[in-house]
Amino acid sequence: MRFRQAILIADGQTYQLTPGKSNSFDSFFADFQSNPVVGEHIREEATQYSVFLHPKQDLVLQRLEIQFDVSVPAGARFLANGYQSWSESRFLSLESSIPRLLGWFPRRTGVYGDDGLPDIPRGAGHLHSWTYTVLQENTPSVTFLGSLNESTGFTLFLYDRASGVLTVRKDLAGLHLAHSFPALDFVVLKSDEKNAYDAYFQLLGIQSSVAPPITGWSSGPAHAQALPESFLLKNLDSYAAFQAVISHPEYGRETGTPEKTEVYFMIDDGWQTATGDWLSVKPGFPRGLAPVSTAIREKQMAPGIWLAPFVASEQSELAQKHPDWLLKGPGNKPLKVGWKREWGGWFHALDFYNPAVQAHLAGVFHMIYEKWGFRLLKLDYLFAVCQAPPPGKTRGQVMYEAMQFLRQLAGRNRLWAGGVPLGAAFGQVDDCRVGGEVNHCWESVLPALLRYRERSGALASLRSVLHRWPLNGRAFGNDPGLFTLTKNKHGLNAMQQQTVLVINVLLGKSLLTSDDVSAWSAEQIAEYSEALALRDSQVESVSEVQNDLYLIRFQHHGEQYAAWCNLNRTSQQIPQMELRPFETIILSV
């Protein structure tokens, strides 16, 4: 991998930057450095590249990028990390493409990914990744590239197979700059995969996630339309009784989950009268939410609750009474960021930099924590806050500062993030969704045909979980989504359910279900208990052996194991046996 060139476009003019040289121009000075990096986890080599801009007059930036010539062998693969936590992420062959969403879909639903962002090349041989990427060349060593500063803007890694050029670009088009600015900072290192991630997070200054693992129950999005207090209390009693059953020696609890595991009972979407009106609960909670939180704690569980702090539905009282709180788009009109039937249609983003918005959210958090008694906030649809940055901010700056604000409001309480660009969540949340909504179906066929990378469905979610597994315990605790063991109208069969459960146990820190556990059979309880016993395993590697056939190597109580996971609709051959469609099997090595 060889440095090719660095380009800055400002006020419509293009400038070539040279590392280690004086890059002084009439309107700005650029401090461009390229320095070797050493550390305990750097096994081969590492170089840090940084560009610090010092304007001599006001500037409007259009582009900043550094290009490298890359020579890779046939069969190499590129990790395409999606724009945000729902975005499907996986290794792709260099001949692959990341196609754009088909025409009418964004206009009907909103854009949750990077399809609305300009200047991202598409087509065969054009690949891109956000915040970090990995070039895998069929050897133990990988080439890892990762941003060291997402607080100033998102970093995009683009690969063009035809030219053999890998470009590192900062998302700062349209940024009005009047002060010194740390514009770009990233590392390129060569190492085995484990040490590459260890070195990366050490350079970021992020310590390992210390929050204990979670088990528990969640109402889940499936119950958003019917979520009365009686439904929650019924499931609370059922889950408390289930906890007593699963602790019985018959189910092997003595070799199961670590002692520090926390048990949570989560109230998901559907408790609010309207999205955005977080201090107004539905009539199904005649006593409010504080008694429900108290009942959860009395069952020796921690109460958690869902909300989407930066969005409001068109029908909400907030949107009707405070239109000045809404983020404005073209024509100074409230920006529509998405459409959801359960919320009554379109919803808007809030203007984070409006002091009234921040004061309102501070009041919401105070009520939820101090008055209602919840201890975990599950914060969703966070990407909406950075959809239209002000002239002096990049999307990444807005997202990072918004996450800092949420972390401050949460204090020492546990904080979960979903629908968030991952770099802005590194080190700022305890738990983060690393895939889309499982939604109790294997694949959402129409959204998949329309190339929707943020779609619901177990397949797309599992692919992301399997490829983002190194973040677990380094950046935060990975939340792989809910699992289910009961039959449901969406049609996950028993084999698919078992595969979701095993992958969630091995690669996630959160293990929650929305099932009525009182309906589980003895066989289903045993299946859950057997999976739970693997909770304290140490994962060593995850590899995609063939398309959607994965091998997870892990250690458990000093013994080596291999989990083979077939996500295909057809049988797949593995050493000495055949895996049925959707089957996962664990073998002793």
Overall geometry comes to globular
- Residue stretches low in confidence (pLDDT < 50, at least 5 long) are 253-258
Domains (count): 3
The second-level CATH architecture of the largest domain is: Alpha-Beta Barrel
Please give the order of strands in the largest beta sheet.
3-4-5-15-11-10-7-8
Helix share, percent: 10-25%
In what range is the share of β-strand residues? 25-35%
Helix count from the secondary structure assignment: 12
From the 3D structure, determine the CATH topology of the largest domain. TIM Barrel
Instruction: Tell me the structural class.
Output: alpha+beta
Q: CATH superfamily name of the largest domain?
A: Aldolase class I
User: Would you report the number of β strands?
Assistant: 32
Question: What's the mean pLDDT score?
Answer: 93
Q: The biggest beta sheet, please?
A: 8 strands, antiparallel
Distance between the termini: 36 Å
CATH class of the largest domain, anyone?
Alpha Beta
Radius of gyration: 24 Å
